[in-house]
Amino acid sequence: MTTQAAEVGAGSVVRLHPLVVRPDDDDPEAIIVGRPDLGEFAELPAVCGEVIRLLGEGRPVAEVEAAVAAEHDVELDVADFVESLADLDFVAEIDGLPLPGPASAPVAGHFEGITERHVRWVFARPMKLLWLAVVVAAALTVLVRPGLFPRHQDFFWSGYTGLSVLVNTAFFSVVASVHEMMHLIAARSLGAPARIGFGTRLHYLVVQTDVSAIWGVPRRHRYRVYLAGMASDVLLIATMLLAVAYLPLPDPAEALLRAFILTTLLCLPLQAQIYMRTDLYFVLRDLLRCKDLFGDGLRYVRYLLARAVAPLRRPGSPVTDPTGDLATHERRAVRIYAVALALGSTVTLTVFALYGAPIIVSGLTSALTALWAGFHGGPALAAVDAALLILVEGGIQVMFLVTFFRTRRHWFRRSE
Question: Is the pLDDT of residue 415 over 50?
């Protein structure tokens, strides 16, 4: 049944999809309404919450309209409102006729068997106190014994570079998985679905958790989701530091743990790169009370670039400021963030072009040379070490390219 066939009349009865309806964090005269399974949310006037409630009770459109007019002394075209909800894919049926689903079908969250009651205890006060005790104990231990603080030499715990890189990368994969799993568990503890997958940030391949559904959760609770991954990283670092400090470990085990501590520690500064939508970006976005800080910031950067080249463009091609319709506090935040976005991205990509890419190319070239020599009478161990390096670094770069093209297919489609 097409949308056109399901017309909304005064006597129409509407069935809605399961929706989240909550008060807006900033505006007492507004509500947030959305479908967590789609990650689609909208800000609506508060009276719309009453309309949605009455429609959910199975009342006809005309009856809902009359009830709202009597209760709130407002005239609201409920039929038009239902059509707007249908455009957002919030309406399941009109007069028993199902509406077509969204262009992109709802994506099921991962680990749906994990429910709020299973993981709520992870964020209860006793666990927070335990986390604090472990972290404080580790911090005091490092203050007393500064030699425990990680050094860059700790990364190469083995005499074979390829083996060190392989094992450290494998451990990093575990840490990243736990980090993202903590985001998912935090979202689940608030009743929101989440999904883990690969993504790209500039030249980085990243594991990321889609927690779009937490827009249905009040802001003060969303910080739990944003910070859960970093909190797990800090707890892991503290635990390993205490193990190195107080357990009688054999030298190889201690060297390995020190490498793992450094590997985990290096993950934390990356979160400060807020121009790449890291964990701290989402914290900043909510603190600044912005809805789409990155998207608005990116549009503002494009606007500034377009304005800079405006004298070179054809006359009659106006450039419009995309922040003009934003609230004052949001406009100010977006413009400042846009500067950080432009500078941070430029510096990061420049450093990668000057240092990161040449290091990767040089390392892979040396590894290929050693591997070729191994096939022609050269040292076998050096060849194996080179093969491990190629396996790790080459695999990461291939995964980056696959993820980059998969998530940006629209860039490479020919316009009709």
Answer: no
- In the chain, the N- to C-terminal Cα span, in Å, equals 28
Ramachandran region of residue 205, left (φ > 0), alpha (ψ -120 to 50) or beta?
beta
Beta bridge partners of 204: 201
Amino acid at 125: R
Where do we find the tokens 């007492």? 28
Please give the C-alpha separations between residue 294 and each of 5, 36, 326, in angstroms, as whole numbers: 39, 21, 14
d(CA 187, CA 193): 7
Residue 3 has pLDDT above 50, yes or no: no
Token pair, residue 178, equals 């736990």
d(CA 6, CA 96): 9
Residue 44: count of CB within 10 angstroms of its CB: 19
Q: Taking the complete model, does pTM exceed 0.85, yes or no?
A: no
In this structure, the dihedral spanned by the alpha carbons of residues 90, 94, 99 and 101, taken in order and rounded to 10 degrees, is 20
The secondary structure of residue 91, as a DSSP letter, is: E
Helix axes 78-87, 47-56, angle to 10 degrees: 80
**Alpha carbon separation from 371 to 162, 178, 368, 380 (Å, rounded):** 12, 34, 5, 9
